[in-house]
């Protein structure tokens, strides 16, 4: 593959508290603010608590999910008395860090999240962005405290709904398992280490280092699975089977236990071999998602370097 070159990545945003009960990102951002880490070498860093109202009450959101408010339609919608707070806040964030899909947007936006699922360290990307995928490869090579994996969303950036899509380049970091409203030292340290490695990579890239071609694995979502439900009441009638619980990324094959009904019956999986992600994620109950099912793919990366003047 031919070498790919990119402009220097000099303006970076690190965000936490997009969901107000996911504590790690909020405290990583506060620690960076305490250390006044707004300029490190070639990188200017903006740190933001994304949803301060939700953080204050330790809830995922106050009116609607902020991390679904960054579509072009919502970012350009008129503000009225009935506009939810999170839509207003999304437009404020877009003005601060964007505008989305403009030359004025920050060069890289990293949004920090927690999951209650046993996902370890998972980076989430829109599309095949060679620069952010090289950052993933670098973090994966440096971190030993937990497996580092990637989830690739096949959504055009113009339709992307989450905060990281505001930057020219962007990704979110999901770290878990961690209960909502709880701060765990091991999970905090994993997220902080990933942020530190990201900034370290940016310094190397901006100073002229070439990152050689290679391969990374990623997971692409094929479908989502809901809980079994009562056809009359729509209430769930089963929980995740103990043999599936906490086995994120482990291959799920036909006949494997999937749910255990409240009356004691096992519901088995039927379908092609796929990998379950975000198993029993707390925030997904309202979205009627028990877990995602994904394919594992291999992505070949070109070598990349900073674009010469």
UniProtKB/TrEMBL annotation:
Comment on bound cofactor: Binds 1 zinc ion per subunit.
Gene3D superfamilies in UniProt: 2.20.25.160, Zn peptidases (3.40.630.10)
Principal location: membrane
Reactions catalysed, as given in the entry: an N-acyl-aromatic L-alpha-amino acid + H2O = an aromatic L-alpha-amino acid + a carboxylate; an N-acetyl-L-cysteine-S-conjugate + H2O = an S-substituted L-cysteine + acetate
Cofactors demanded by this protein: Zn(2+)
Tagged with keyword 4Fe-4S: no
Keywords, in A-Z order: Cell membrane, Cytoplasm, Hydrolase, Membrane, Metal-binding, Zinc
Domain Succinylglutamate desuccinylase/Aspartoacylase catalytic intervals: 9-198
EC number: 3.5.1.114
Signal sequence interval, chain numbering: none
Entry binding sites for Zn(2+): 19, 22, 113
NCBIfam families: PRK02259.1 (NF002601)
PANTHER family: ASPARTOACYLASE (PTHR15162), N-ACYL-AROMATIC-L-AMINO ACID AMIDOHYDROLASE (CARBOXYLATE-FORMING) (PTHR15162:SF5)
Protein name: N-acyl-aromatic-L-amino acid amidohydrolase
Organism, scientific name: Dissostichus eleginoides (Patagonian toothfish)
């Amino acid at each position: 593959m031919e070498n790919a070159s990119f402009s220097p990545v000099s303006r970076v945003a690190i965000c936490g508290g997009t969901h107000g009960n996911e504590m790690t990102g909020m405290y990583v951002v506060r620690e960076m603010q305490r250390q006044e880490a707004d300029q490190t070498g070639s990188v200017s860093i903006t740190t933001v608590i994304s949803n301060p109202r939700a953080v204050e009450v330790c809830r995922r959101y106050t009116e609607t999910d902020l991390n679904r408010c960054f579509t072009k339609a919502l970012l350009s919608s008129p503000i009225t008395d009935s506009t939810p707070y999170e839509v207003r806040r999304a437009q404020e964030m877009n003005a601060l860090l964007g505008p989305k899909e403009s030359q004025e947007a920050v060069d890289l936006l990293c949004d920090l999240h927690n999951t209650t699922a046993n996902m370890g360290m998972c980076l989430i990307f829109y599309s095949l962005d060679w620069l952010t995928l090289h950052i993933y490869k670098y973090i994966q090579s440096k971190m030993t405290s937990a497996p580092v994996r990637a989830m690739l969303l096949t959504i055009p950036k113009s339709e992307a709904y989450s905060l990281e899509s505001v930057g020219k380049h962007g990704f979110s970091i999901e770290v878990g398992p961690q209960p909502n409203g709880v701060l765990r030292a091991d999970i905090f340290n994993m997220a902080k280490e990933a942020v530190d490695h990201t900034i370290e990579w940016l310094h190397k890239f901006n100073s002229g280092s070439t990152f050689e071609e290679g391969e990374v694995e990623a997971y692409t979502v094929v479908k989502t699975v809901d809980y079994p439900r009562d056809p009359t009441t729509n209430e769930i009638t089963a929980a995740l089977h103990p043999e599936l619980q906490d086995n994120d990324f482990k291959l799920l094959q036909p006949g494997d236990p999937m749910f255990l009904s409240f009356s004691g019956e096992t519901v088995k999986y039927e379908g092609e071999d796929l990998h379950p992600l975000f198993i029993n994620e707390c925030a997904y109950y309202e979205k009627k998602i028990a877990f995602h099912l994904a394919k594992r793919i291999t992505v070949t990366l070109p070598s990349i370097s900073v674009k010469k003047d």
